[in-house]
């Protein structure tokens, strides 16, 4: 965690092929809140901060994909 950031864990997922995903709400020192998506694959970590609109758009795309019967 960086100085001035606080976070609240929202969800954790065990994904196929021993990958993991976490969703957090991050509040910065300025008071700005973002949704943080953390993807882990072995030692590799990818972290993306999303504003509210981007988080909603990503959620909608995932719901659409899941509803289409697409199997990974």
Automatic annotation (TrEMBL):
Pfam families: DUF6967
InterPro entries: DUF6967 (IPR054240)
Protein name: Uncharacterized protein
Organism, scientific name: Marimonas arenosa
